[in-house]
Amino acid sequence: MNYDALRALEQSLRDSREVLEYKRLKELVEENETTRALIKEHKRLQMLVQMSSMAGQRVPEEEMQRFQQISSLLYAGTDTSRYLVAEMRLQQVMADIYNAINQASGLSLELPGLS
Question: What is the pTM (predicted TM-score) of this model?
Answer without folding.
Answer: 0.82
